[in-house]
Amino acid sequence: MNKYNEKVMQNFLNPKNAGVLRGANATNKINNQDQSSMDIVKFYLKINDETEVIEDARFKTCGCTAAIAVSNVACDLLKEKTIEQALLIKDYDIISALGELPLDKIHCAITVTDAIKSAIDNYYERKAKEQKKEEKAKIKAMKNMFNFN
Amino acid sequence: MEKRIYLDNAATTYVSSEVLNEMLPCFNTIYGNSSSLHSFGRDAMAIVDRAKDRIAKAINAEKSNEIYFTSGGTEANNWAIKGIAYANKDKGNHIITSAIEHDSIIESCNALRREGFRVTFLPVDENGLVNIADLMHFIDKETILISIMAVNNEIGTIQNVKAIAKTAHENGIIFHTDAVQGIGALKFDVQDMEIDLMSMSAHKIYGPKGIGALYIRNGIKIEDLIDGGNQERGKRGGTTNVPAIAGFGKAVEIANRDLVVNQQKLRAIRNYFLEQVFEKIPNVKLNGHPLQKIQGTVNLSFDFIEGESLLMLLDMNGIAVSTGSACTSGSLEPSHVLKALGLSNELAQGSIRFSFGKAITKKEVDYVVEKLVESVEKLRNISPIKDGKRKN
User: Fold this and answer.
1) Is the pLDDT score of B244 beyond 50?
2) Count of A-B CB contacts under 8 Å
3) Which of A114-128, B83-97, B106-120, B243-257 shows the lowest mean pLDDT across its residues?
4) Maximum Cα–Cα distance for chain A, whole Å?
5) Which CATH superfamily is domain B259-381 in?
6) With the CA atoms of B300, B304, B307 and B311 taken in that order, what torsion angle do they form, in degrees rounded to the nearest 10?
């Protein structure tokens, strides 16, 4: 018998959440330099700025069977969750969504939860940048208005 | 699953019918203990002797009593390394081997290291070859054993065994080679190649599992392996495994008989396979020596994907291959062989070994290529590092 259960194999063979998400406003940067872990997981989240609800989630993963299955199921878990709820998703929540994982593959779930966190970090960073930009634009507009030079 | 194609012949092979027929009578007709003095025992002994003769002849050993049966390649390797080290420790405590040896050599050396022996693991070049100049550099007065594999199990690279053996002997050092992957693919002549000890195994050459042998040139000092009866000239006790030995002898004989024709066929298959793969899949790298290698083993690295997931997809299509990548326990552990070649971790992780057997057909290769193209494409489509971000 396969070392993975049927649910893992289903998620691996038909990862319906795989691919780039158009209009995503939160993605984690992948770090090729970090060679301590093989799995490279990238999430694309579309977060509603008003309600902070994750409206859609997709992934791209270079990794083993478990890493791909975990990424796919994590997207299902993320959808319709608020950011606050998403940050509470733990590795064992993802594992239990798949039933079980072989012991030597537990780290895949940890990689994925880390990737979710950095995707959300990225969302706030982007927001902060946008705010700064807006403020700058406002100041510029005011300067122009009063014709300071 | 309709179709099943086995491309993991470097892991093990099926038992060929010729070999099986040789073995079957030994289970219920010639079942005596080969150590017994009566006719039942003598009959069994005759089978064992014949197998020894066959193996000795195939590798051109001077005498057939230089063949010692073991439970397989791992046992032979353990015995060679530890047995020589213990028996010659008054002469020195230094052993030289390579970084791409089989685990049974590396771990035997590590065990000796814990006991105070010094071990040098020679580096290899990007093709997997040991450099003789490196070897000469590391030889010192204390060196008692040099052990270099004849053919690497993951990439198929053939070492310059004769030159290494000569270098060892010029310095008065014993030379061992692990020839488990070489038998059946290369012609071995232990006298001409100056090999002192050589490990062999049956199950890689269409023989049974659980049987192998260590060739020990007469006059080489080695510690006994198992205390017990006087089997294997008193060096390895335990009732002789007559059926397996009968099969082993036959398998070696056939491997030698068909060596040229098998290699010619495998070369044609391998060239066709590689042609197809390189034509249909971009960003693939062939690992190991491009020419100085056995024909059956092909190790490829696919950029942007991981080996285990590719293995699983091929397995879903009935194709059995193996991968050197082991994404376990959170730590990155690509195969020590591919790492020694200097492959980046990413490429090492995306590596797959295809090892063809003598029964493979062109039609099967076509099917494998078709499924391989599909699977690689599928995984690359969901990989975040696809777009020309190859890091090396």
Assistant:
1) yes
2) 75
3) A114-128
4) 77
5) Aspartate Aminotransferase, domain 1 (3.90.1150.10)
6) -90
Q: Among all residues of chain A, which has the CA nearest to that of B313?
A: A13
- Cβ–Cβ under 8 Å, residues B58 and B282: no
What is residue B333's predicted lDDT score, i.e. its pLDDT? 67
In chain B, domain spans: 17-257, 259-381
ipTM: 0.87
Structure tokens at A70: 């975990």
Q: Using CA atoms, how far apart are residues A8 and B331, in angstroms rounded to an integer?
A: 21
**pLDDT per position as a tens digit, B280-290:** 999 999 999 99
Angstrom distances, CA of residue B319 to CA of B224, B265, B313: 43, 20, 9
> Which one, of B146, B77, B85, B80, lies nearest residue B116 by Cα?
B85
How far does the CA of residue A142 sit from the closest CA of chain B (Å)?
Answer: 43
Model confidence over B35-93: pLDDT tens digits? Answer: 999 999 999 999 999 999 999 999 999 999 999 999 999 999 999 999 999 999 999 99
pLDDT tens figures, B183-231: 999 999 999 999 999 999 999 999 999 999 999 999 999 999 999 999 9
Query: Domains of chain A by range and CATH?
Result: 6-123 (3.90.1010.10)
B17-257: which CATH architecture? 3-Layer(aba) Sandwich (3.40)
Q: Which of A23-32, A111-120, B68-77, B326-335 has the lowest mean pLDDT?
A: B326-335
Q: Do B384 and A62 touch (CB under 8 A)?
A: yes
Contact yes or no for A12 and B349 at CB 8 A: no
| Residue B109 annotated as catalytic | no
Cα separation of A70 and A98, whole Å? 8
Cα of B304 to nearest chain A Cα, Å: 7
DSSP secondary structure letters along B26-44? HHHTS-S-TT-SSHHHHHH
Optimal mutation site among A11, A34, A38, interface B, most CBs of chain B within 10 A: A38
Please name the residue of chain B whose CA is at the shortest distance from the CA of residue A66: B309
